[in-house]
Structures are given as C-alpha cells and as structure tokens.
Amino acid sequence: MLTAREIISLEHVGLQYNENRPVFQNVSYNIFTGDFYFLTGQSGAGKTSLLKILYRAVNPSFGRVKVFGYDVSSINRADLPIFRQHIGLTFQDCRLIEDLSIVENVALSMHISGSQYKKSCVYARELLDWVGLGDYLDSYPDILSDGQKQRVSIARAVIKRPALLLADEPTGNLDDDNALRLIALFEELHRMGTTIILATHNSQLIETFSYPRLILKNGTLFVGNVNKKRNAV
Asked: What is the total count of domains within the chain?
C-alpha cells in the first residue's frame, strides 16, 4: 500500500515481449513525492519501456505498479486521460500536432484541462521564450529542426506543472547550452514539488547534476550513488 508521500511503487515488476528474453525482471522500488532521478542504462536496457509502464502505455508482464495510488494495470482505457492529467510526458519522437502552430501545440494540454485559451497561450509563449523559441511562436512543426521540436515537446510537458514528469531522453537532440537550460527548467519544477524521472544516456549531464540514478542493467534495477560534485548552471 502506498504511504502518503509515495507517488510510485514498483513491486517485483517484469516485462518481456517474448518468452525467452525479459527486458527486465523483479524490479522493486518506491519513489516519493518531490524526488528527482536519472534513469540510466545502455541502449535496449528498458528505460523507455519502464517509463511506458508508468504512464500505462504498456502493461507489465509481472508484478504490480502503482502510480498516485492506482494499480496501473487495472485502469481501463476510458479512464486513462484522467489518470494522465497530472503526468507530464516527453517522448524521443516529440509527437507534435502538425496542423497546430508551435504555441498552440504547447497551450493545448493546459486548455484541455480547463484553462482559458488566452491564458494558456500566454503561458505557452513564456515557456517557448524560455527554451529559446520565441521567434517561432506562430510557426508550424514541419519547419523546425529535431532539437527545436524537442524543446517544444518539453515546454508542452511542463506547462501544467505536473505532479510527475517522465522525460525520455529530453536532451538527446540538444547542444550542451540548451540541454543545461532545459535541466534548469526541470529543476525549477522540482523545487515546486514535481517528481521527475529523466531517462538519459548522457554521462556528462549525470555528472553535472547531483541527483541519484536508477540504473537498468542485465534486466535488473540498481540505485546509484548521488554525485556530490555539482557545476553551476
């Protein structure tokens, strides 16, 4: 059973797509409100798959996963939008809506949640300016580079100040300056109480910021030590 501060509970969780080779198995760990973790591991270790389980895009093959107190496997498809209301998601493939402008893409999730459209657009413009895209507000995704699309995706994920942010390689297409700028944005959310799990293979990023690591290796989850050395952003 979740305690008052636990936001995620993993109990002997396993995932396999075929009978002979599990992606990971027997993963057990609790994540508390306000935690910030780097999720690391080699390509194919299961980082993206674990994030997908947490927002119920994939069901675990074994074990129990609770998020916000809900057993994710028991949530039916009709209730998924309600479950995901307080989760911010960034994907490697960005998944922007091509028929909407950049500012409309970012404002949409906030507007769907009940905010006035004009208010949503004001926040969207501020966030896009923060991530260095203030000159592209009325542009459409097809003219953006992969790195620019990634920044739009991140702005969209954080605009509602979600209780939980699941970020899958959010800095993968960014240069060092923009990567640090976006981590600073995540840190600001973290200070306001957002729980963050950031999947990355960027060792420089991990060494720069003093957050603990969840390490997927050989099908098992390990907890890494906190790096005590921190460079200023």
From this structure: 1
